[in-house]
């Protein structure tokens, strides 16, 4: 099986690796194989589709997240861990799972976990998914640590979508929604009986991803299509810590950022405006202001950088 990423292992003090993991994934402790305090590994970040992603290469004894770590750094994410090379044993919720290349495990950062390597060189891709949104989409069946069985046909479909998001620098947000749909189908398959649980929030998020490029599509139109009032829609979004309008703006900005990052020579000559309009904005001054607020740079700077 072909690897998703090219792993990088470089020698460094264990504290440096711990700091890199904590910065990207949260509070985890790293145990080296020897007393020298030196390990080999690397932590890199990448945005794929609508997800923040970490590429973690390790040559250590184990990595632990205990209750003390959780108190210091409460878990806000579920991490879809994809074993890209080497081996790892994941322990969470009183269960132990051995991962080989291609295996996937949904780690719950709100519960203690252990990743045992025993000095075997390992490379993993970790896709970060907001815990609150996952629970609202799929219920609590996605929490506590879930192994994604490669015997399930959906495993192959999930891997294919991840490969496509990694391969395309400016991957469209629709790929992220497609991945959510595959995960929803997988969790539904784990439940015994009952109809699929499609919530107002999950339908709203899917519509935002589908129609965000339409400048006339706003919270009012979203509520109308969902057959609920705007006040009810706002209430459903409170658990995500944002409003429908904020979510729509975020999606449009992400689409514009991806297009600017992947802009070719022709698009650079055309300028920023066509990309902003294609992402769903009809007010350039508003687009520039919100883009700089979110990313800390101007749209033109992103285009020139890439």
Explain this structure.
The protein has helices at residues 14-25, 67-72, 131-138, 153-167, 173-190, 200-211, 219-226, 230-237, 244-261, 265-270, 273-278, 284-295, 299-305, and strands at 10-13, 29-31, 38-48, 51-59, 62-65, 77-85, 88-92, 95-99, 104-108, 113-116, 122-130, 146-148. Mean pLDDT is 85; it is low at 193-197. The longest helix has 18 residues, at 173-190. It is built from 13 helices and twelve strands. Strand 7 and strand 8 (95-99) form a beta hairpin. The two termini are 31 Å apart. It is an alpha+beta fold and 306 residues long. The strands form two sheets. Strands 1-3-4-11-6-9-12 form a seven-stranded antiparallel sheet, sandwiched between helices. A five-stranded antiparallel sheet has the order 2-5-10-7-8.
